[in-house]
Amino acid sequence: MVSQVATAVSTDPRAERYRQAEHRLWNYYGLEPTERFVSLDSPSVRLRVLEVGSGVPVLFVHGTAGLGAWPVLIDQLKGIRCLVLERPGWGLSSSIDFSRHEYRRVTADVLAGALDALGVDRAPVVSASIGNLWALALAARHPSRVDRIALIGGSPLVPEIRPPRIIRLLASPIGALMVRLPPKRGMELNQLRQNGHGASLDAGRLPEEAFIDWRLTMGRETHSMRHERDMVRSILRRDGWRPGLTFEDEELAAIRQPALYVWGTADPVGSVDVWRRAVGALPAGELRLVEGAGHTPWLDDPGLVGGHVRRFLTG
User: Which carries the bigger pLDDT value, residue 209 or residue 197?
Assistant: First the structure.
C-alpha cells in the first residue's frame, strides 16, 4: 500500500508562502512541527504529515476548517506525539478523485496507508467535522489499527444529519465561483460566525489574526477548497447525502473501540438529541457537551476541550 516516506524539499514559491503562514500559526503557540510526505500505492496519493510532540502516537484528521485549526488544540496535548495528516487535496497533499471510489472504503484505506508509512501499527485517532467520518470508517474497516477515537464537532455520521448550508453552497454552481475567487477576510470571519463562533469572536477569544492569515494564504496559494468542493460533490446529491455515506445504528454498534464525542451546543450541525442517540449506539461511546461552543469547539474553549481529549487519550 505504501511506496515511500520522504522529507519535503520544495522550490515552489506558492508552497513556500503557504508554509510560512503555517509556520507563523504554529509558532504562535510555540510549536515547531516537522514535515514529511508519504506516498501510497492504493489509492495513489502523496500525503503531507506534520509531526509535533513526543510520546504516544495519535493520528489527527481535520475537517473543512483545515489542518490549521489543530494548533489551538495540540497546544493543550503535551506528552502526545501528534501525527497531523493533511487530507488528500488539501494544502500540499495531492488530490484523489473521490467520485471513482466508495467513499468510506477509500478514506479508511488512506488512513491505514498513512499509518503503515509512519510505522504505526495501532493508534488513537482525533478527528473533526467530516474527519469524524474518516475515523469511524477506519475503525469499521481496519479495527485492529484503531485504539480509540475522539470525534469533535458535528459531521455526517448518521442519517438524521442533513447537509449543512455551507456544504450545499460549496457544491452548487455558486460554490464553483467561490473557490476560484481570492478569499477575503470578511468572508472567513462570516463563516466562523455561521459555524457558531460569533460569541468568541466578539469576546476576542479566538486566535483570529494567525488563523485567518493561514486560511487566506491557503486559499490564495493552494487549491484546497477546489479539491474540497470536488470531494463534497462526490458525496452529495440533491436530496441529501449519497447512499452508504452515513452509519446506520447496527454499523455503529459494531465499532467496539472507546469513542469520545465532543460537541458544542452552538454547532449548527446536529443537535443534542441527535448526538445523544448516535453516541448511545456506540458500545463504548461517551458524549461531552461544550456550552456555547461552535463547530470547532476547541477554538472557543481550548482548555476544556483539550482536557476532555487529553484525559480520554491517556486514561
Answer: 197
| Identity of the amino acid at 89 | G
CB atoms within 10 A of CB 304: 17
Are 220 and 250 in contact by the 8 Å Cβ rule? The answer is: no
CB 31 within 8 A of CB 74: yes
The torsion of the CA quartet 285, 69, 53, 124, rounded to 10 degrees, works out to 20
What whole-number distance in Å separates Cα of residue 39 and Cα of residue 117? 8
CA distances from 123 to 296, 306, 312 (A): 23, 18, 13
pTM for the full model?
A: 0.95
Structural domain includes residue 174: yes
Looking at the structure of the chain, the number of domains it has is 1
Supply the pLDDT for residue 10. Answer: 55
CATH at 241: 3.40.50.1820
> 16 lies in a domain?
yes
The C-alpha atoms of residue 32 and residue 27 are separated, in whole angstroms, by 6
Express each pLDDT in 212-231 by its tens digit: 999 999 999 999 999 999 99
Domain assignment of residue 222, given as a range? 2-180+214-314
